[in-house]
Amino acid sequence: MYTPDLYKNENPEEIRAFLKENSFGILINQTNEKLWATHIPIELEINAEGKEVLQGHISKLNPQAEGFQENDQVLAVFTGPHSYISSSWYDHENVPTWNYIAVHVYGRIRIVDYETSVEQLKKLVDKYEANSTNPVRVEDLSSKTMREARGIFGFEIEINEIQATKKLSQNRDDSNYKNIISELEKTENPQAIAVAKEMSKCRK
């Protein structure tokens, strides 16, 4: 991912928090000489060896999995808030741009066994059911329903490299920076407001 030095995020804790908060990602690999991409939850976890890895699952009917045997190199893409930035918000002439936060994780993927896949499913469901009035638990599902779990491949990605971009108008002076935040907040667009919130964190 092309990232000018000014916009590189090299703070491990920030990146870790971002991955946990924006875990619906895009898994990309090469299968049958074509690039394939699948939109799925991909969770940052600690594996049995105590290493940080990415975990997830895809359907056994998804042709993407065929490529894992030929080439285990994959890319997982995670995106956060983003918004158009109008140059009319500056006190000088310039071009419009786009502010955004994104993380690319490169690694090696391997398919895990059924029991491990089920454990991963339990963690995933528990995470997203935590605030439910009547939370679903994988442990409580019938054997008939759990047979559907036989239709997935659970996977684990060994992380080789992380590239993180946080492009939030860092190249603007304080006056223009504050005005961008103000204009974003006026839009009433959830994405724009989220970008304004992130910008406020970066510069008080």
UniProtKB/TrEMBL annotation:
Signal peptide: none annotated. It comes from the Bacteria. InterPro entries: Split_barrel_FMN-bd, TR_PAI2-type. Pfam families: FMN_bind_2. This is FMN-binding negative transcriptional regulator. It comes from Flavobacterium calami.
